[in-house]
Amino acid sequence: MVQEKLCWPGSAQLAPVPAVLVGCGDGSRRNPYNLITVGWCGMACSDPPQLTIGVRPERFSFGLIRRTGEFTVNLPTKALTADLDYCGVVSGKAIDKFKERGLTPVPGDTVKAPLVGECPVALECRVKEALELGSHWLFIADILAVRVDPGLVDGNGKLDMEKAGLITYAHGNYYAVGEELGRFGFSVRKKQ
Amino acid sequence: MVQEKLCWPGSAQLAPVPAVLVGCGDGSRRNPYNLITVGWCGMACSDPPQLTIGVRPERFSFGLIRRTGEFTVNLPTKALTADLDYCGVVSGKAIDKFKERGLTPVPGDTVKAPLVGECPVALECRVKEALELGSHWLFIADILAVRVDPGLVDGNGKLDMEKAGLITYAHGNYYAVGEELGRFGFSVRKKQ
């Protein structure tokens, strides 16, 4: 049933969006390891694989990413919801969030930015372009490597993302990924 | 428990991501209304509100968006999963997907691109920048208006996104948005 829609001014109402832990810094005194929660994140291109993150320039992590040109995108699980939330609220300027939350920084393979050991999947990223858009800068980054917990890989060597228990974010709330509704292409397969 | 992670080449493993119906065209003979399903979509900036979509140049919708500079982002619900899937598989070059799927094109308020009447929330977007990244072009677009079904607005005039029954996409599968895990800021409120 089609209702006549209200018309509101433009705002950030895309939902649901990923909510990811972005690891940054290189472990040096000038660029210590830090974590920031990012909801403004999306895939941009499949080949070569690229994604985007939007970060406010006043965030401590912004300078780390600008100076090092690297970051990691770590996919959190239900068990990490409170850590994810915390890393989006508290600044890393004075606090070591890894230590504070008992999270394990793991050296990247292709980048100096740290992975979050507790996240089952992490993407190692190198900034390709940085665009000043307004409240946020958009970083477009190459995904150089995908790091995966061996426990998520099935007998055929395939990643089973469903096992991970990932979460999503909509309109101020974190949600579990719920029931499966279908596999890509099912609407056409069904018809035949 | 931290496992030692496998290291795979970079690939498009951000998950879960939005899966949205993008409306495009202006209803003219050259630029007929069309729908395309987009998973490479993310928020880019809060103020002014901007989002990104990644589209392959060989898609019929690509030319429509390039020529008109406009599109809509429509948030689908569980009931629309098969339509969402269909619009990602079938080309609009020879088929009117609105007609084929019984979906209702609704004129935009600020753009000529059509909304999907059956989607409870739609964002009207104007392209600001188009970047050729590889397999996909990235469109960065201003969100000019948010269109909302009145049924989603609570007594205080606030949008209740949870009512919508939105869906998300991970690794080739569509999923319902599941149980709520917490509200933004809960980790800090709890502590106090």
Would you kindly provide a written description of the structure presented here, covering whatever features stand out?
2 copies of one chain form a homodimer. Chain A has 192 residues and is α+β, with helices and mostly antiparallel strands. Helices cover 15% and strands 40% of the residues of chain A. Chain A is built from 4 helices and 12 strands. Chain A has a 7-stranded antiparallel beta sheet with strand order 3-2-6-9-10-5-4. A two-stranded antiparallel sheet of chain A has the order 7-8. The longest helix of chain A is centred in the middle third of the chain and has 9 residues, at 60-68. The interface between A and B is large, with 99 and 99 residues. Strand 1 (6-9) of chain A pairs antiparallel with strand 10 (137-148) of chain B.
Work out the number of β strands of chain A: 12
Range of helix content of chain A: 10-25%
Count of domains of chain A: 1
Give the C-alpha Rg of chain A: 18 Å
Oligomer: homodimer
- Average residue pLDDT of chain A: 95
Quick tags:
homodimer; 192 residues; alpha+beta; Pnp Oxidase, Chain A; 7-stranded antiparallel beta sheet; two-stranded antiparallel ribbon
